[in-house]
Design brief:
By secondary structure, the chain is mainly β. It contains two helices and seven strands; from the N terminus they run βαββββββα.
Length: 121
């Protein structure tokens, strides 16, 4: 991930098929500090997420087709059924431990480098 300040390597679990997309962080009791989950959509989508059966707070980064973070929902509340929506159609959502975006200075407009965005080798 490239922020305005630095290059941040984050190891993501890649979730691209429907069964894995629907499971995500469900029932996890922890996530490594430098890890996350990348939910890929085959085409830009008006993505919505929720925290049902998710036991840890998460930051959700909504990423467009060019790899630009369009919005961030910080510290999503465990077990909440509130829908958390992308500000515009996105190609992916990245879930990180709650508070990670603020701790690392990740902001909307920062870029994610990954092959699905066509910006990594």
């Amino acid at each position: 991930m490239i922020t305005r300040r630095s290059l941040l390597p984050i190891l993501v679990t890649f979730l691209a098929d429907l069964p894995r997309l629907s499971i995500g962080a469900v029932f996890r009791t922890s996530l490594a500090p430098d890890a996350g989950m990348l939910f890929e959509y085959q085409q830009p989508t008006a993505a919505t997420m929720w925290m049902r059966n998710t036991l840890i707070p998460l930051d959700m980064l909504f990423v467009d087709a060019q790899g630009r973070i369009v919005n961030i929902h910080e510290r999503a509340v465990p077990q909440s059924l509130e829908l958390i929506a992308a500000a515009e159609p996105v190609r992916a959502v990245i879930e990180l431990n709650g508070g990670t975006a603020a701790r690392l200075g990740i902001e909307p407009g920062d870029r994610v480098v990954h092959p699905i965005f066509g910006n990594a080798s």
